[in-house]
Amino acid sequence: MSVERSLREAWGMWSIGRPDPQAVIRLACDGLVEGLDTPKLRELASLSIHNADRHEVRELLFFALSELGERPPDFETSGATLLALQFCCERYLNGELTPRELCSWAHQHVGHEGPAIAQQLVLLDDDMDRNDVTSGVRDFRIETDAAAAAFLDASHALAKSCHPPGHP
């Protein structure tokens, strides 16, 4: 996954009230290592992960994305929520979230009225409720793996159609 895309997804997490300043600072450092170099990205990477002001990190993230040619979505849009869901799916596929955590998050933040490309994850949460996933009766890992991968494929294809060539 590209650092630029990860930074966009981190912006999405921020938009739903789940900021992770330390992760953003680490991503900025990764971006510099990968050859991305803008003034705000350098400033962001120079912050201490132990005592960075989250408001400063948010502001620098916004401007760093702008310098990289990205227009961060407004916090009030479904685009920001989909970016956050991309971040959650990546975390799930990296083993950082359980199937229940991912699908519950999708249900809570996207809901049944949300975009069609996220509905498989939302519906899996309903299935988990019906099958009492905590009892271990049924493992939803295979279905969740497939739904997370399908969502990422669809959302990245949608993002590519919205960005000019040369942007991730």
Provide keyphrases for this structure:
mainly alpha, elongated, disordered C terminus, about 170 residues
Summarize the structure.
With 168 residues, the protein is mainly alpha-helical. 64% of the residues lie in helices and 0% in strands.
Radius of gyration over alpha carbons?
17 Å
| Average pLDDT | 83
- Taken from the alpha-carbon principal axes, the silhouette is elongated
Low-confidence stretches: 162-168
Assembly status: single chain
Helix content: 55-70%
DSSP strand count: 0
Task: Tell me the span between the first and last alpha carbons.
Answer: 10 Å
Q: Tell me the series of helices and strands, N- to C-terminal.
A: HHHHHHHH
Question: Could you describe the 3D structure shown?
Answer:
The protein has two domains: 3-67, no CATH class; 78-162, no CATH class. The chain contains eight helices and no strands. It has helices spanning 3-15, 21-33, 39-45, 54-67, 78-93, 99-109, 119-130, 141-162. Helix 1 packs across helix 4 (54-67) and helix 1 crosses helix 5 (78-93). Residues 162-168 have low confidence and may be disordered.
